[in-house]
Amino acid sequence: MKKADRKTDTFEQIFAGVYGYNRPYIPMKADLNQRVAIITGGAGMIGGAVAELLAASGARIVLWDINDERGAAEEQKIIESGGEAKYYPVDIADRAGMAAAVSQVVADFGCIDILFANAGVNTGNRQPVTEFDSDLFDQNIDVNLSGGTVFLTRQVLPHMMARGGGSIIFTSSVCGVTGLRLQCGFVASKFAICALTRSLALEYARYNIRVNTLAPGSLPQPYGKLNFLWDTCDFENYDQNFTNPASIVYDIPARRPAYPTEMAGLVLYFASDDASYTTGQVVCVDGGWTAGFSGDY
Ligand SMILES: NC(=O)c1ccc[n+]([C@@H]2O[C@H](COP(=O)([O-])OP(=O)(O)OC[C@H]3O[C@@H](n4cnc5c(N)ncnc54)[C@H](O)[C@@H]3O)[C@@H](O)[C@H]2O)c1
What CA–CA distance (Å, rounded) separates 226 from 49? Predict the structure, then answer.
């Protein structure tokens, strides 16, 4: 496609057919028949793509989110594709609400086999640590780590143990394995999620419960818009990004952002019995971003 043809408004149109995006492919399948999967942030990009892929493999999908409109739309989309899904309005910042929702899911579905604890926030004022708003720092830790990961996992584990096993998958980030300036709250929460992955894997492997983590690269922010990291990207002269160290694309060997469907295959694998001996792992799906340095020193 010529560059001129790419001068369009939406991210998907800009990248359609170039740099590996939108290549036709047949998505993976696994045997998740009747497995019950809770997906937090299920109305979002990654959660939605994962929900659709797991549903296509037979899982019964429980969508949790605070965006009721998009949650209901995702539920509808899965049902229309022949899958099973139910949306619950659940805020991962609300401990009592999460505990009640876990009980409700067990009452509605009978069990929990898969937990994809994926929802997260990135709050902060983009400042170095001395200037970083303390309340916002705490919010990252409280929502992403203490609530959405630790508290929720503690609620779900007894149900998985009663069931004889399960698969827990967290969402971290590339900046849960490498540092990033000006986002210390988010980075600290995502690093801790990777640490927990290993500790919980050690604690629960004997109960046939596996714990693994997806660490995504950068995805275009919802819905058709780019997130602020992509402000540095030159879309008119895209190839200029490859030689401009100020552009985010310069640092990403794949030379493009990630797409939600590219996250989903790894989560399906972690959720499936194909991964029955895989636990305690953090896998970056990042176009090579964390593989090494970008410059030719
Ligand atoms: N988008 C990226 O570039 C990127 C990169 C690395 C990691 N991540 C992580 O991936 C995860 C999913 O994000 P995404 O990329 O799909 O973004 P997204 O904004 O499309 O989805 C996030 C979803 O979480 C929901 N949510 C937010 N706060 C919530 C709360 N308190 N309770 C329940 N739901 C809540 C939102 O309504 C949204 O539907 C997040 O943990 C995020 O930190 C994203």
Answer: 18
Distance, CA of 174 to CA of 217 (rounded, Å) = 6
* Ligand 1 residue neighbourhood (C-beta within 6 Å): 40-41, 43-47, 65-67, 70, 91-93, 118-122, 143, 171, 173, 216, 218-219, 222
Q: Residue 205: what pLDDT?
A: 98
pLDDT tens track for 121-141:
999 888 999 999 999 999 999
Cα–Cα dist 36/256, whole Å: 34
Residue 165 is part of which domain span?
31-224+261-280
pLDDT score, position 19: 55
Instruction: Give the ligand 1 atom nearest the CA of 48.
Output: 16
Spacing, Cα 273 to ligand 1 middle (Å): 26
* CATH classification at residue 265: 3.40.50.720
Amino acid of residue 11: F
Residue 231 lies in a domain: no
Smallest CA-to-CA distance from 10 within 244, 230, 247 is with: 230
In a domain, 10, yes or no: no
pTM confidence score: 0.95
Domain-embedded: residue 51 = yes
Does some domain include residue 269?
Answer: yes
pLDDT tens-place string over residues 95-114: 999 999 999 999 999 999 99
How far is it, in rounded angstroms, from Cα 232 to Cα 124?
20
Place of tokens 């609300």: 94
CA 4 to ligand 1 center in whole angstroms: 33
Provide the number of structural domains found in the chain. 1
What does the DSSP 8-state code read for residue 262? H
